[in-house]
Amino acid sequence: MTNQTKSTVISPIVTIGALFFIFGSVTWANSTLIPFLKLACGLKTDFEAFLVTFASYIAYFFLALPSSWILKKLGFRNGIIIGLLILAFGSLIFIPAASSRSFGLFLTGIFIQGAALSLLQTASNPYISIIGPIESAAKRISIMGLCNKFAGIIVPIIMGTLFLKNASGIEAKINDAATTVAEKEALLAEVLGRVYTPYIVLAIVFTAFALFIKYSHLPEVDVDKEEVIEGGDIKSTKTSIFQFPHLFLGAFCIFVYVAAEVMAGDIIGVYGKALGISADISKYFTTLTLTSMLVGYVIGIITIPKYISQQAALKICAILGVIFICAAYATTGYVSVVFVGLLGLANSLMWPAIFPLGIKDLGKFTKTGSAIMIMGIAGGAIWPLIYGYLKDYAHMHFQLAFFVSVLPCYLYIWFFAAYGHKIRS
């Protein structure tokens, strides 16, 4: 990567930062949609409700590689425009889904949104990594994380207030044998009607931002050239993506990282409710997790790479994750919830460190490698279902199920930070 002037770097960072704010707005809405759709669609178990995260994150697995092909054909900017328009379309699917009270149609809209985010993430993450020196990529991605998690802090509050207003009271009325069928139908219709305005507004915003990108001067970056091998001037002559083992170890690290992030962010409300905390309070717990992540991002921006390397930051975060998940299991009530929320601090610098370590030295394979890394986001689809199965069908205590499903994630991340990212053959 040639040296960039401040003016040529700052403008794309601001634009991509706005894009990451959009990612956060859509992704962290899941924490509200899980309890909302469980109530509005009459779902019986948390396992069913966790299909919300499954539909959202599994899209990355199927669409990441096609996204890389689109980017190769059309470039980063056109790929971003298409992704935003698909995101707007997915948001509009919520309107007929609410009208028909169809959980399947809601999942379809969420999957389409996930597909759009797959394209957008496949474009924006390598872009922000390569727009400057790779050694400081974690700092730039941390800035993007601030934008993402700031959206994640305010969106659950806004949507929780809009969608889950008096949720406990409505749920009690629906479950009350004295409530007639007509009264239940009216209650559910009122609850589902709450999605119309927010998702129409989101569709308009996404379309407007696509137009902004179209007429902006977002520069393309050249990721197809060969990279110089560390320690010498010899150009890389590798001919296959499979000759980069650190990429696949990094993709699996993304898989378990996103799993841990979703468990700490989207599932914390369900976790708090299982502890006996009212849904009217637990709907805001995601904000606790994301506030912790914001603190971590600020620390990363200040310290990486001036004081610590991105590898060292990743190792510290993995160790913190192990400590906090053990503490959450060993405590109860609000204290346990706080430790789950603190997992946000442990998770904060993981994506900013894992992604550049995974795509480092890929040269002309960067777009494909980025897509493989993005496929790892599917971990967010699988882990909530594992937790839901252990809790609802294997009848494991919910805290133990949370512990045994999350702890292995941090142990593998620790391995990747200490050793895995160094493996080149």
Structure description:
The structure is a single chain. The chain is mostly helical and 425 residues long. The chain has one domain (6-216, 243-422): MFS general substrate transporter like domains (Growth Hormone, Chain: A), CATH 1.20.1250.20. The chain has 20 helices and no strands. The chain has helices at residues 6-27, 30-40, 46-49, 51-92, 94-100, 103-130, 137-163, 167-175, 181-192, 196-214, 245-265, 268-274, 279-282, 285-303, 310-330, 333-347, 350-359, 366-375, 379-392, 398-418. It is globular, with a radius of gyration of 21 Å. It starts with 5 loop residues before the first helix and ends in a 7-residue tail after the last helix. Residues 1-5 and 226-235 have low confidence and may be disordered.
Defining traits:
Growth Hormone, Chain: A, 20 helices, globular, mainly alpha, single chain, 425 residues, disordered N terminus
